[in-house]
C-alpha cells in the first residue's frame, strides 16, 4: 500500500472523531467523512505502522443517512464533524464510540442505552469564541480556525451558533472596518447568552480606538447585551480569556437559570454550552447521586456551582472544589443569590480538596466529578477512594478517559453500575457521559 493509491473500501465503523473505518490488506483504514455501510473510493494520504489514513474521493454506494451539509464551511473550519449525515446516524456513531471505549478500555461490558438526543440540534450553543482576521481586501473577518491550523475561516453564518452571537460578530466587524481597527489589535470575540448576552472583545493591547462607537454598534445590533467587556490578553497560546478585564458597558456578569437556580456568570466561569441538554444531564446525574439529608456531598470541578447547589438542596451539606478563583467567587455569589446556606466552596484542586475535607473530619457519602477532557489524575482517584463514598457520579466529556478512569476506580473497589450518554454537542464528535460507580465494600 502506497501514498496516493486509490482503495475501494467498505466502511465498517467509526473512529472516536467520527471518521469511517474500513480494512484493506489486513490494515485499518480511516476515511474522513465516510459513513457506516458505504462503499467508497479513498486516496491513501499516510501509511502508518498499523493505521492508514485516506481521503474520501468518491462514494460508490452511499448510505441512506448521507445528507447535503447545511453549511458552506463544512470541511474547512474545525467546528462540525457530522453535517454530512442524518442526526439519527450521528447518535448511532456516538453510541458506538461510547460502547467501544467502555468495552475495550474500561473492560466494563454492559448494555448501553441509546444516546439521549439533544432537544435542540441547530443554534444550540449559548457560547461562542470567534477568531478575528483580515480578508485580502482589508475588511475584517470573523470565524473559526481551520482544523489543526491558525488560519481563520470566515463565517458570517453557523448552524450551531446562536443568531445573537452572529449579530455580535457582525457588529464588531462593522466597528473594525469603520474605525480602521487592525486585526493585530483584536484577537477574539467572546459571546455568552443567558438572561441577555455578554460580549467580550479580547485585545492584545489596552488601546481601544473609537470605544464609544464599538459600544454603540453592539448595543444597537445586540440590544439584549447586558455587558460589553474588554479583556487585554497579550500572552502566547490559546487561553482566550487570560488577562485583565475592563467593563465597557453594563455588568461584568451574566445571569441565567438552570435546574431551578439563578447563576451569575463571569466570562471565565465554566458553564455548559447546551443549556437545554444540561438540564437533562444534571437531572440524571442527581438521580444517580441520590444524596439524603443525612449525607455530605462533594462536587469536584464545580465551576460556578451548578451541580453543588443542586446537591445542597438534596443533602445535609455540599462542598464544591475548583482551581479557578473567578469560578469560586461566582459559586459563592450564586449560593448567596439563591439563599443556599449549606454549600461551601474550596479554592483547591480536586486532590487537595479531598485531603482538606478528610483532615476536617468530613466524609462525603456522595462525590460528583466533572473533569476536563483529560479526565482524572490517578492521585485524584486515590484521594476520592480514601474518602470511601458509597457512590461516585462521573460526568465525562471524553469516553476514552472515562473508560480509563473506570478501570482505576475498579482497582480501588468501585464497580460500574450504570452509564448513559447525552448528546451535548450536536453535529460535533464530542459526547458527554454520566456513569455511576458504587463502593463494593458497602
Explained architecture:
Helix content is 26%, strand content 31%. Helix 1 (87-104) runs parallel beside helix 9 (399-411), helix 2 runs antiparallel to helix 3 and helix 7 (350-359) runs parallel beside helix 8 (378-387). The strands form four sheets. Strands 9-8-7-10-11-12-13 form a seven-stranded mixed beta sheet. A hairpin with a 3-residue loop joins strand 5 (39-47) and strand 6. It is α/β, with parallel strands linked by helices and 442 residues long.
What are the defining features of this structure?
442 residues, alpha/beta, OB fold (Dihydrolipoamide Acetyltransferase, E2P), Rossmann fold, seven-stranded mixed sheet, 9 helices, 22 strands, 31% strand
A few lines on this structure:
This protein is of the alpha/beta class and 442 residues long. It is built from 9 helices and 22 strands. The protein is flat and about 60 Å long.
Amino acid at each position: 500500500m502506497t501514498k496516493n493509491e486509490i482503495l475501494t473500501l467498505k466502511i465498517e465503523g467509526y473512529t472516536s472523531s467520527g471518521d469511517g473505518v474500513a480494512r484493506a490488506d489486513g490494515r485499518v483504514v480511516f476515511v474522513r467523512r465516510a459513513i457506516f455501510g458505504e462503499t467508497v473510493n479513498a486516496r491513501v494520504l499516510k501509511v502508518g505502522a498499523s493505521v492508514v489514513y485516506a481521503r474520501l474521493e468518491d462514494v460508490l454506494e452511499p448510505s441512506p443517512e448521507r445528507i447535503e451539509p447545511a453549511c458552506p464551511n463544512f470541511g474547512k473550519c474545525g467546528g462540525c464533524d457530522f453535517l454530512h449525515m442524518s442526526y439519527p446516524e450521528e447518535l448511532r456513531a456516538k453510541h458506538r464510540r461510547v460502547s467501544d471505549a467502555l468495552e475495550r478500555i474500561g473492560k466494563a461490558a454492559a448494555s448501553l442505552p441509546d444516546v439521549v438526543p439533544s432537544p435542540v440540534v441547530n443554534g444550540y450553543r449559548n457560547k461562542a469564541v470567534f477568531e478575528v482576521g483580515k480578508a485580502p481586501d482589508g475588511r475584517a473577518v470573523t470565524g473559526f480556525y481551520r482544523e489543526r491550523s491558525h488560519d481563520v475561516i470566515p463565517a458570517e453564518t453557523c448552524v450551531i451558533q446562536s443568531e445573537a452571537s452572529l449579530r455580535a460578530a457582525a457588529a464588531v466587524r462593522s466597528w473594525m472596518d469603520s474605525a480602521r481597527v487592525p486585526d493585530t489589535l483584536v484577537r477574539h470575540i467572546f459571546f455568552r447568552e443567558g438572561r441577555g448576552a455578554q460580549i467580550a472583545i479580547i485585545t492584545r493591547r489596552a488601546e481601544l480606538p473609537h470605544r464609544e462607537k464599538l459600544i454603540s454598534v453592539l448595543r444597537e445590533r445586540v440590544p439584549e447585551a447586558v455587558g460589553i467587556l474588554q479583556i487585554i490578553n497579550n500572552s502566547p497560546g490559546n487561553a482566550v480569556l487570560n488577562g485583565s478585564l475592563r467593563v465597557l458597558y453594563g455588568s461584568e456578569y451574566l445571569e441565567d437559570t438552570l435546574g431551578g437556580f439563578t447563576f451569575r456568570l463571569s466570562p471565565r466561569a465554566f458553564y455548559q454550552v447546551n443549556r437545554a441538554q444540561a438540564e437533562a444531564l444534571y437531572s440524571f446525574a442527581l438521580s444517580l447521586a441520590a444524596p439524603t439529608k443525612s449525607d455530605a456531598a462533594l462536587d469536584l470541578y464545580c465551576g460556578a456551582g451548578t451541580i453543588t447547589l443542586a446537591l445542597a438542596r438534596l443533602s445535609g451539606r455540599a462542598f464544591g472544589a475548583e482551581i479557578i478563583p473567578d469560578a469560586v467567587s461566582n459559586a459563592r455569589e450564586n449560593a448567596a443569590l439563591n439563599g443556599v446556606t449549606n454549600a461551601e466552596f474550596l479554592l483547591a484542586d480536586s486532590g487537595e480538596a479531598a485531603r482538606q475535607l478528610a483532615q476536617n473530619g468530613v466524609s462525603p457519602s456522595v462525590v460528583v466529578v466533572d473533569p476536563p477532557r483529560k479526565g482524572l489524575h490517578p492521585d485524584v482517584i486515590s484521594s476520592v477512594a480514601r474518602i470511601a463514598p458509597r457512590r461516585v457520579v462521573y460526568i465525562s466529556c471524553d469516553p476514552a478517559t472515562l473508560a480509563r478512569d473506570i478501570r482505576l476506580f475498579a482497582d480501588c473497589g468501585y464497580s460500574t453500575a450504570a452509564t448513559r450518554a447525552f448528546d451535548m454537542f450536536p453535529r460535533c464528535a464530542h459526547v458527554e457521559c454520566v456513569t455511576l460507580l458504587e463502593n463494593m465494600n458497602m
